[in-house]
Amino acid sequence: MKITVVGTGYVGLVTGTCLAETGNEVICVDIDAEKVSKMQNGVVPIYEPHLDVLFERNIKADRLKFTTSLDEGLVFGEIIFLALPTPEDEDGSADLSYVLNVSEEIGKKIQSYKVIVDKSTVPVGTAEKVHAVIAANASCDFDVVSNPEFLREGFAVDDFLKPERIIIGSSSDKATKLMQRLYSPFVRSGNPIIVMDEKSAELTKYAANSFLATKITFMNEIANYCEKVGADVDKVRAGMGSDSRIGKRFLFPGIGYGGSCFPKDVKALRKAGKDKDYDFKILESVIKVNDAQKTVLLPKIEAYLGNNLTGKKIAVWGLAFKPETDDIREAPSIYMMKALLEKGAELTVFDPEAMPNIKKSFGNTLTYADSMYGATEGADALLICTEWSIFRTPNFQKLKGLLNQPAIFDGRNLYNTEDLQAEGFTYISIGRKE
Ligand code: UGA
Fold first, then answer.
1. Which residues pair with 60 in a beta bridge?
2. Is 123 annotated as belonging to a binding site?
3. Could you tell me which residue ranges the UDP-glucose/GDP-mannose dehydrogenase C-terminal domain spans (predicted)?
4. Position 80 pLDDT exceeds 80
């Protein structure tokens, strides 16, 4: 099949590349000429494990192409994916201007039947709006389908190739059949393609992300309470998670959820509710609790190092919002570092992938270390914000030798408390006995 993907963010790029992998011919369109030229030369513009191999293979096979010309893209594909940004507006709602502007162009340019697929996370009713904007300009037949994406950064290729489910919101049999044909190679293991109306599909995405954010936040509150009563959240998590109705995943407490999706989507759903006079009280609480959770370790650091952090040196391991990505959007590390800098602390930081991005916003207010151990040299404490694998089994004796004081504040519960105490560390984590 011939496919066009408009927008080469991580969703668009992964979608385009993985669809080429099953033999489709794919053109990806982006307005960023520099990025397009890089991609034409085989450079993957984002860090996403395994994407480079597929990218190179499909470019070589001539199945994956890039262009800045929307016109070229709109003529090429029978199916046109919109993978455009829907940033947070000032009031928390999703800004649809990118999606609607491209829709207008689609209406003006298409000459033959096309299926327009909303892949972006968009509020309920967007497919209807996109349909209306295209219809106002189009002279040929077309359908609009909602096909929300459930990729996780860092696992995006795997999630695309082996999805647990595909959601298709469509009211056209013709479009539904084309979408089912396109996705059939990815669900051969029997995972479902669930077809529903467009609005339900759009809401499924917000409901899924908001539920997962709520699940994490609930666990963070249980962790905070564990500390008050001397219980251990890891034990509680294992006990709860063994109930298949609850499930083991997404129960890991920490210094809050971040990223480009959960924070934005939870706020957008709350705002969408308000617009319909519906007050999502749960989401209101989730936002509040998560905001506070990002700096939950701050008072503990102050209790250890003293209220005046001026001149105190703190090493920070992990800056990305989660491991296996260089993405720092809404990363809890940012909130912690800002709070520590405000209190006068000096921070030396290390992250395997996200340092260039952090440097762009923090500049020379931070010291950037070449290695994880390098960051800890002469530091009064180590703070861990992201659970990269390389942080999981450090040489504790080496670390103790490098740190000025053997103290670890762990926002991701990487280590066993008794082990660290036996090694002679002051070890403070989330929701566990100190
Ligand atoms: C999330 C969803 O998991 C994807 O299904 C969805 O497609 C994507 O948003 C999106 O809307 O595009 P992502 O933001 O890449 O994916 O990251 P997650 O792995 O879900 O993690 C989100 C945040 O939750 C991270 O900050 C992570 O540290 C935190 N988290 C996750 C916890 O604090 N505890 C957990 O148990 C799990």
1. none
2. no
3. 315-417
4. yes
Q: Which domain holds residue 16?
A: 2-196
Rg (C-alpha) for the chain, rounded Å, is 24
Q: Encode pLDDT of 266-310 as tens digits.
A: 999 999 999 999 999 999 999 999 999 999 999 999 999 998 999
| 137: in domain | yes
- Angstrom distance (rounded) from CA 19 to CA 12: 10
Query: Is 393 part of any known ligand binding site?
Result: no
User: Which CATH number is 224's domain given?
Assistant: 1.10.1040.10
Single pTM value for the model = 0.94
Q: Which of 18, 226, 261, 385 is catalytic?
A: 261
Residue 25 among known ligand-binding residues:
no
Residue 87 included in any domain = yes
Residue 261 appears among annotated catalytic residues:
yes
Residue closest by Cα to atom 29 of ligand 1: 257
Instruction: Indicate whether 276 and 306 sit together in one domain.
Output: no
CA-nearest residue, atom 6 of ligand 1: 150
Q: Which residues pair with 348 in a beta bridge?
A: 315, 367
Atom 35, ligand 1: residue with shortest CA distance = 250
Domain count, the chain: 3
- State the DSSP string of 269-309: HHHHHHHTT---HHHHHHHHHHHHHTTTTHHHHHHHH-S--
| ipTM given for this complex | 0.96
What average pLDDT does this structure show over 42-57? 93
